[in-house]
Each structure stands twice: as structure tokens, then as C-alpha cells.
Design a protein that fits this description.
The protein has 77 residues and is α+β, with helices and mostly antiparallel strands. The protein has one domain: Sandwich (Jelly Rolls), CATH 2.60.120. Helix content is 22%, strand content 30%. The chain contains 2 helices and 4 strands; from the N terminus they run αββββα. It has a two-stranded antiparallel ribbon. Strands 2-3 form a two-stranded antiparallel ribbon. A hairpin with a 5-residue loop joins strand 2 and strand 3. The protein is globular, with a radius of gyration of 14 Å. The chain starts with a helix and ends with a helix. It holds the Pfam family cNMP_binding. It comes from Pseudoalteromonas luteoviolacea DSM 6061. This is Cyclic nucleotide-binding domain-containing protein.
Length: 77
């Protein structure tokens, strides 16, 4: 099944305000997020607080742990 269709049929839609963190560095990320519109910034923060941008996630892209999402769908059913 195409990933976008899988997310549409089994996912939950949510709206996130600008500046809101979806998950933080070091968190266990149990989900995959589909960016329907907007732009997300993925970044690391060093021990001294310096932010380093890893990438930008644009509209119609995904971010998150595919391994964790696969496990949520298949490991516990």
C-alpha cells in the first residue's frame, strides 16, 4: 500500500502551530508524520545550546521513525 494512503486511512490528522516541536532530540519517536502543508525544520542542539539544522522537511514529505511506526502496525497485532 502506498504510504500516503496508509497514513490517510490509519493516521490521525493534527494541526501544529508555528514554532511547536513535534518531538525533541533524544525522545523515542513512535510515529511517522506526514507534512500535508508547511515546512518543518529538523535540528540538533549541542550540549552548549548551539542549534545545527539537519534538514528541512517540506510539504508532502514524512518525518519520524519508520522502524517505530512499522513496529506499531506489525509487532503488536
Amino acid at each position: 500500500m502506498e504510504l500516503q494512503k496508509l497514513i490517510a486511512s490509519h493516521g490521525t490528522q493534527c494541526q501544529v502551530d508555528k514554532g511547536t516541536r513535534i518531538f525533541n532530540q533524544g525522545d523515542n519517536c513512535d510515529y511517522v508524520y506526514w507534512v500535508e502543508s508547511g515546512l518543518l525544520k529538523a535540528f540538533y542542539v549541542t550540549a552548549n545550546g548551539k542549534e545545527t539544522i539537519k534538514s528541512f522537511i517540506k510539504q508532502d514529505s514524512i518525518i519520524g521513525s519508520l522502524n517505530a511506526a512499522y513496529c506499531q502496525v506489525n509487532c503488536f497485532n
